[in-house]
Write a structure and sequence with these properties.
The chain is mostly beta strands. The protein is built from one helix and eleven strands; from the N terminus they run E-E-E-H-E-E-E-E-E-E-E-E.
Length: about 130
C-alpha cells in the first residue's frame, strides 16, 4: 500500500474529524503535491483540497473553504485534512492522492494523480 488513509467515522452535523494519510513511499510528501478527494454514492470523485510540495500553499473547493484545512508533516510523511463544521453533504469516501507532476500547480482533476489511498468513509448525520 503506497498511501494509507484513515480517520473517518460517523459524526453529527457541526462536529469535526481529522483525516490522516500516511505515505509509505520515501520522501514522497516532501517532493510531491498531495490532494484529498471525496466521492459520494452515485457521484463522481471530486477534489476537496490540495497542498503544494514546494511551499505548502493550499487550494480548496469552494464548498469546504473556511471549514477544512489541509496540512502536512514531512517528518511523519503524513498529510492531514482537518474538517470542521461538518455537514450532511460532506458524507463521502475520502481519498488521499499524490499528484503525478511536481512541476505544475495543484491540479483538481483526479486524472492528474497517480497514487491513491484506499479511502476512508466519513458519514455526517443531520
Amino acid at each position: 500500500v503506497q498511501l494509507q488513509a484513515f480517520g473517518g467515522g460517523l459524526v453529527q452535523a457541526g462536529e469535526s474529524l481529522r483525516l490522516s494519510c500516511v505515505s509509505r513511499r520515501t520522501f514522497s510528501i516532501r517532493s510531491h503535491t498531495m490532494g484529498w478527494f471525496r466521492q459520494a454514492p452515485g457521484a463522481e470523485r471530486e477534489f476537496v483540497a490540495g497542498i503544494f510540495w514546494r511551499d505548502g500553499s493550499t487550494a480548496y473547493t469552494d464548498s469546504v473553504k473556511g471549514r477544512f484545512t489541509i496540512s502536512r508533516d514531512a517528518a511523519k510523511n503524513t498529510v492531514y485534512l482537518e474538517m470542521n463544521s461538518l455537514k450532511p453533504e460532506d458524507t463521502a469516501v475520502y481519498y488521499c492522492a499524490q499528484q503525478r507532476r511536481s512541476t505544475i500547480a495543484i491540479q483538481k482533476s483526479p486524472s492528474e494523480y497517480n497514487y491513491w489511498g484506499q479511502g476512508t468513509l466519513v458519514t455526517v448525520s443531520s
